[in-house]
Amino acid sequence: MEINQNAVLPVTGSGTKIHAVSRHKWKSNTLPALITVGPVTLWLAFFVAVPLVYVAVMSFCSIDSYYNVVFKFTLDNYARLLDINYVKIYGQSFLIAFASTAISILLAYPFSYLIARTKSHKKMLYYILVIIPFWTNSLIRIYGWRTFLGKYGWLNSALMALHLIQKPADFLYNRGTTILGMVYCLFPFMVLPLYTSIEKLDENLLEASADLGARKLPTLFHVILPLTAGGIFSGCIMVFIPTLGYFFVSDILGGGNADVIGNLIERQFQSGNNWPLGSALSIILIVITLVLVKTYQKCGGSMENFGA
Amino acid sequence: MKRKSRKVRLDVLKRIYGFLIYLFLFLPIIVIVVNSFNATTSKPYLSWKGFSFIWYTKIWENTELLSAFGNTMLIALITTAAATVIGSLGAIGMYRYNFHGKKTIDALLYIPVVIPEIVLGISLLTLFTKTNIPRGLLSLILAHVTFCIPYVIFNVRARLSGYDNSIEEASMDLGANRFQTFTQITLPVLLPGISGGALLAFTLSIDDVIVSYFTNGQTKTYPLKVMESIKSGVSPDVNVLSTVILVGTIALVVLTQTDILRKRKAA
Amino acid sequence: MDHKKKIVEISGVNKVYGENHVVKNLTLDVCEGEFLTLLGSSGCGKTTTLRMIAGFEEPTSGTICVEGENIDNKEPFERDVNTVFQSYALFPHMNIYDNIAYGLKMKKVPKAQISRRVPEMLDLVQMGGFEKRFPSQLSGGQKQRVAIARALINRPKVLLLDEPLGALDLKLRKQMQIELKRLQRKLNITFIYVTHDQEEALTMSDRIAVMHDGVLEQVGLPREIYDAPATKFVATFIGETNLFEGYVEREDAGLLTIVTENGRIPAKGKGFKKNDIVAVSVRPEKMKYSSEKMTGFEVPAQVKEHIFVGAVEKTIATLPNGNEIKLERLTGDIEVLGDVVYPYWNLDDARLLKSPSDTVVKAIDSGETLENVQPAAV
After folding, report:
1. Which of A65, A129, B37, C80 pairs with C217 at a CA distance of 20 to 30 A?
2. Which residues in chain C touch residue B185, judged by CB atoms under 8 angstroms apart?
């Protein structure tokens, strides 16, 4: 008996591992696999993997007196990360990220629950209405907030018209407005995973819990929250991580009073022109991302939640 | 009776809560749309001087803004086409074939989605500098395709999860060769996933600020133009263009989505 | 069936997936116009065999010929065979008309001819008027009819059916069995039908090929398979049977004495010799019982239960070693639970089978008496 072992790509079909036998050309899976997976592989390798490795390498490089990158190994960049002014900004950045995440979840969870479990035929509309605002440019929307909150903005005009205040109040340029902007920008990233996980909840489970004598709050804590934990966790990651990097939000709404790590990186790559230092700062963000995502996966979270 | 009145009260609360959230989401957009009709012509263009279409006519004079907008559309169209082709093929291939390194590709796919955009932006900047890829339209397209591919793949993959492989076998059984099977069966069946991915890629591309900010060189896209003008005070023509884009996007989505909905009903 | 023309010849076919030898040295001929069923439990290699004929899988070795022509190098779309899939595999984005017309369009049949043949075909499967519907708007039975029409319209030399009725409920399945058989007779197309349902196989087939663990165990007419199973597997898989396992103690001109755990029983059979390990298979309906010992049949059984199964009533009785046997309850017989009866049968109604059962072989090798051996429960 002759068993052809020209198999290059074992194919999964009906759950069993099959060795492709290439007696006919068409049945060989090598060519179609290369055509389909080849481009995306090359693209990701060249535009995702290589650049990230290069940034990691650059974070150990030096600069000369003209701010050119010199491939000379140094740990200086990492030493400079411990600069007290930087450390203060990390603290502020984390504070903003934590606050933004917490507020997002408090606002988004009841809201997602309402739209995910409504029996109204307008359910799809409710869902789309969450996404529509995000079809206008995020910068423009943040600018809209600045206009609204500004000295001559609608809020001040309204408050003055109601004689609640005598002269325009300063709402802008602090951590509060920056957090507002972050929450606003990232709100759908919290809503979407929550919506998906809440929609998947089996109505029978809620009924079973009520049937077994649980009131609304125990049902919430013992059934609903644990079952939607995956959505909550992925929503938190989707809000927390970008918040550390959204430099333009703190630029426009924080006015330099609420910088995040992203602002530090941006400065090094633009005005500061110290790319190795900027790379080292970026490594902080990469490490935080990795730690959070790995923790998420360890807790049994599915990466698919990020794809929604 | 008590139970019923409590239910009504809860219902009112739910409505108020929902309304407040939507207000929060739409407030800045209302500000922009209203300001696009503001008759004011003096900086900082904030005080309300009455309703007018003046900025809708003046927008043609702002050639810089229009050319930035043209760049954005050009980049978005090319990005959408490239990311859709590469992503759809990739999704089909990764669904169908098993090979070494599949897990690595899968992990790489999630990187642009989860890492902060600024990291992707600066890493692409360093790559383009090192490899002497000129910064401008080309680098912007390359960068945009990079962060769009994963979303196309996720969309097509979602469609593939309900896909019955035997329809391809049935097609070949009935006399269609591989190419005919791909164009007449595989593609049409996956089309909703592919077009959803394309739509997402398009909106991501026209909205992108951070990655473009680092990879643009001298070429301005519409968001970058907005960023520049925010520093000097945004003139109402930016509001006008934003309003137009919003209306255009809504129209595009309503058209394509209802098409999909109608087909789904029929299918 | 020798007088008929062979249309499919499978010779020496093996299929290996990695470590799994799924089809083992299969040789089987299918005659023109016949309804042949590949019968076996899941994983026995029957579907793989079907897929090799269709061209979706390639034999690791061996050849398959259709009308005398080796089709090994033909792609599925070049083969004059069509398949009805278990999942129906209707194209979800095409209406019923386009689904059925697909094969003809691929063959570049003129449009006028297509628009004449499609409604004809739909009428044939009693689905006339459904042209504009989409697959998702049809019930399982309707989908199945469309899937059959879509395959048959191409006038294939052979129609391959992969458990086509598996997803239907019992009543609809019975109805479709009759319709399929009627359709096959009317069109005189060769059907190769895969199923795990022995009753379905017995009802519909001209011939049945029983497969087990990749091996073709027996091919024959339904009655042959049922009345004269060639192997222990066939005997137990098709219909119910009672097995008495043991070894040949004495052989005398085709009359044998078998030693079983529960005592000696007589049997008839050719080609057996002393010490052969065998199993005697007796169908429940062939088994009788008496309150007294009959000549040769001295194994007692205790009546344990009566089961009402519709047309007949069955009795379960326990043998001394604890194994159970099934008999058909005879009206007017003694049948009190707990009674001891003596089962017997006409020697021509029993089937003597070679049974290389491990436990029995081991027992003989070690010189143990069979009384101490627990035969494999059946």
Report:
1. C80
2. 91
Helices then strands, each counted (H, E), chain B: 12, 0
Structure tokens, C98: 């386009």
Mapping DSSP onto H, E and C, the string for C21-56 reads EEEEEEEEEEECCCEEEEECCCCCCHHHHHHHHHCC
What is the number of CB-based contacts under 8 A between chain A and chain C?
Answer: 29
Nearest C-alpha neighbor of C75 from the set B87, B203, B250, B177: B177
- Vertex C305, ends C299 and C311: CA angle to 5°? 105
| ipTM of predicted assembly, 2 dp | 0.87
User: Contact C106/B175, CB-based, under 8 Å?
Assistant: yes
**B interface test, pick of A139, A234, A260 with most B CB neighbours within 10 Å:** A139
Whether the bond between C156 and the residue before it is cis, its omega within 30 degrees of 0, is no
* 3-state secondary structure string across A78-112: HHHCCCHHHHHHHHHHHHHHHHHHHHHHHHHHHHH
| B111 contacts on A by Cβ (under 8 Å) | 48, 52
C349 and C211 within one domain:
no
Cβ–Cβ gap C154/B180 under 8 Å: no
Q: Is A25 exposed, middle or buried (0-12, 13-18, 19+ CB in 10 A)?
A: exposed
Which pairing describes strands C313-318 and C6-17: parallel, antiparallel, or unpaired? Answer: unpaired
Nearest CA of chain B to the CA of C166: how many Å?
A: 16
Residue A210, SS3 per DSSP: helix
What percent helix, strand, coil does chain B show, rounded to 5?
80, 0, 20
Hey, are the CB atoms on A139 and B209 less than 8 Å from each other?
yes
Do residue C194 and residue C295 come from a single domain?
Answer: no
| CA pair distance C247, C236, nearest whole angstrom | 19
A5 at the C interface (CB within 8 A)? no
Query: What is A82-307's CATH superfamily?
Result: MetI-like (1.10.3720.10)
What global pTM score does this model have?
0.79
Look at residue C96 and tell me if it is in a domain. yes
Q: What's the CATH number for B62-232?
A: 1.10.3720.10
Residue C220 parent element (H or E): strand C215-220
Tokens of A183: 């929450």
Residue C297 lies in a domain: yes
**Is B166 an 8 Å CB contact of chain C?**
yes
Strand extents, DSSP E, chain A: 10-13, 16-19, 62-63, 69-70
**Domain spans of chain B, in order of start:** 62-232
Place of tokens 């029978």: A204
Q: Does residue C166 share a domain with residue C67?
A: yes
Are C223 and C77 in a shared domain? yes
Distance, C-alpha A282 to centroid of its chain:
15
Using the 3D structure, point to which of C205, C232, C259 is the last residue of a domain. C232
Tell me the CA distances in angstroms from C262 to B228, C237, C295, C299, one per residue in order. Answer: 98, 24, 16, 6
From residue C249, alpha-carbon distances to A101, B168, C271 in Å are 84, 59, 14
Per-residue pLDDT of chain C (378 residues; tens, 9 = 90+): 455 789 999 999 999 988 889 999 999 999 999 999 999 988 899 999 999 999 998 899 999 999 988 988 888 899 999 999 988 999 999 999 999 999 999 999 999 999 999 999 999 999 988 999 999 999 988 999 999 999 999 999 999 999 998 888 888 899 999 999 999 999 999 999 999 998 899 989 999 999 999 999 999 999 999 988 888 889 888 888 888 888 888 888 888 888 888 888 888 888 888 888 888 899 888 888 888 888 788 888 888 888 777 667 788 888 888 888 888 866 555 557 778 888 888 888 888 888 765 555 555 445 444 444 444 433
**Residue B265 Cα, gap to closest chain C Cα (Å):** 9
Q: How many CB atoms lie within 10 A of CB C44?
A: 25
- Report CA A173 to chain centroid distance, whole Å: 24
Residue C371: enclosing H or E segment and its boundaries?
none
Question: In this structure, are C58 and C175 located in the same domain?
Answer: yes
